[in-house]
Specification:
393 residues; Aspartate Aminotransferase, domain 1; seven-stranded mixed sheet; 2 domains; 14 strands; Aspartate Aminotransferase, domain 2; alpha/beta
Length: 393
């Protein structure tokens, strides 16, 4: 069999393109944060992870520009060798303080954080236990690890305890959960998970990719619950609230030191440029000095959520700025996406395997910089689409 046969027989995407229902790889020509230009048309964006609206903040932009003037456009090497700047270490100290841990370590992407951390910690004889709704990067990190991977039903504490109770007590154990689940917008119940981890001798890692800048006054899910000291590792990304690119892991000094010398995705990847580092540092300063920005994000979120629910939309278990509109079938979901786009509203259609069968949805997410007029417009368009497709009455 020719290795490329699978490529020539894959027709699903082209079939959707021919029907005008292909929603992916949409080429944005320009972006102002809450609005983007797509094929010459201005579209209201409610599908971005730019939760605090900092990607277009003049201070963040200027910090990145100044860093390029001083350091150039690339570090041209890995953190392990010639790619560490004093600026990286300054950011790591700032991040550790920001999330309340002893030390932090910066990676080139958030995906690489999960790949590197999980695979280097979970060795032969160890077990990693993951929520079934965990992000793909966590799943891939578990699959790369030399230890065994086990799953538990989403946020099901009884199932988690059954899984933990059946693991050899002598085995090293790592439980990994998302703080905010990126499709459902719900939270990991850390106050319930932590006692189980302590009872069965497991370490706990929380992926706060969608929590940093959002929960706990911007400091993440652990801060939201007041359990930072009981979470062993906090992971975060820069590509959302921090308006940049990259990721980090924070925890006890010894654990971070070990990861620094064993995580292959850190050691064998080029480090993030100084411009990305400077953008993150400026974003953190803004979050710390302008708490009203997080408050505004929540005001926008609750106004949107209540508006959708009053119209009769199913918004699932969301309690965060990630608000799914659950539709059901793939065809209706793609049709709803297309209608929204034609009316000037950008959403993200999500289908299996990212969500269970018959639970396809439009993933919407909100920014502190959305105006009241923009929220009204988004609700009006979604209402028209929902009624046209008999999703609401």
């Amino acid at each position: 069999m020719d290795l490329f046969e699978k490529c020539t027989t894959y027709t699903t995407a082209r079939e959707m393109e021919a029907r005008g229902l292909y929603p992916y790889f949409q080429p944005l020509e320009d972006t102002e944060g809450t609005e983007v230009i797509l094929r010459g048309k201005r579209v209201l964006m409610i599908g971005s992870n730019n939760y605090l609206g900092l990607t277009t903040d003049p201070r963040v932009r200027q910090a990145a520009i100044d860093a390029i003037h001083r350091y150039g456009t690339s570090c041209t090497g890995s953190r392990f060798l010639n790619g560490t700047l004093a600026l990286h270490q300054e950011l790591e100290a700032h991040l550790a303080d920001f999330v309340g841990k002893e030390a932090a370590l910066v990676f080139s992407t958030g995906f690489q954080v999960n790949l590197g951390v999980i695979s280097c910690l979970v060795q032969k004889g160890d077990v990693v236990i993951a929520d079934k709704d965990d992000h793909a990067s966590i799943v891939d990190g578990c699959m790369l690890a030399r230890g065994e991977m086990r799953r538990f039903s989403h946020n099901n504490m009884e199932h988690l305890e059954r899984v933990l109770s059946r693991i050899n007590p002598a085995a090293g154990k790592l439980v990994v959960v998302d703080g905010v689940y990126s499709m459902g917008g719900d939270l990991a119940p850390l106050p319930d998970i932590i006692p189980l981890c302590k009872q069965y001798g497991a370490r706990l890692m929380v992926d706060d990719a969608h929590s940093i800048g959002v929960m706990g006054k911007g400091r993440g899910t652990s801060a939201h619950y007041g359990v930072t000291d009981d979470v062993d590792l906090i992971m975060g990304t820069f590509s959302k609230s921090f308006a940049s690119l990259g990721g980090f892991i924070a925890g006890d000094r010894d654990a971070i030191h070990y990861i620094q010398h064993h995580a292959r995705s850190l050691i064998f990847s080029a480090s993030i440029p100084a411009s990305n580092v400077a953008a993150v540092m400026t974003a953190i300063d803004i979050i710390e000095n302008e708490p009203d920005r997080v408050d505004r994000l929540w005001a926008v979120t609750e106004r949107m959520r209540s508006g959708l629910q009053e119209m009769g939309f199913n918004t699932g278990p969301s309690v965060t700025p990630v608000i799914p509109i659950i539709i059901g079938g793939i065809e209706d979901t793609f049709t709803a996406w297309k209608m929204c786009m034609e009316m000037g509203l950008y959403t993200n259609p999500v289908i299996e395997p990212a969500v269970p069968p018959n639970e396809c949805l439009l993933r919407t997410s909100y920014m502190a910089t959305h105006t009241d007029e923009q929220i009204d417009r988004a609700l009006s368009i979604l209402g028209d689409v929902g009624r046209s497709l008999n999703l609401i009455s």
